[in-house]
Amino acid sequence: MDKTEEPLPNLIEKAKLGNQMAFSALLNNFWNDVYGFQLIRTRNENDAEDITIQTFSKAFDKIQTFNEDYEFKTWLIAISKNLHIDLIRKSKRNVLQGNQEGSSEAIKKVLDDAPSPEDSLITEQNLAALLEYIKRLKPHYQEVINLRYFQELPYAEIAEKLGEPINNVKVKLLRAKRLLAEIIKNNN
Question: How many CB atoms lie within 10 A of CB 184?
């Protein structure tokens, strides 16, 4: 993925102000770093991807706490490492308790911003060709694209339907749109 031209401190500042394009740029710039880190730790693509999504979800939710005295990548990796440790602890505790109860998290009300460039690219494509491109995505990305763009559900309903925190849904959707845009560009 291409690194953005905008300086990192500017992107972080814009993200702190809620700019969705800044969030998308940060996700694109650091996805491979966090995913690669988790792939080494988990040795499982699905687990690495899930933890990476959770990492960005948590980071974007807590972006206001980021201290500019530290490297952004280091901050993301620390979040990712802690999420992985928590996941291991939780799975051990569940095995010991023989209980698979999940924690319930309140769904936050989130305003949808104007369409991003990826959204515009998606809507401009021929539907039949677009469906073929979507089929090339992993199933969980296909599902989130379907729920958002074909069933036109808001983030809160998608989160409820998937049983995931709303921030995870937003990060999955950002990632799915980016991957879909790359597939479309590579085929044109």
Answer: 19
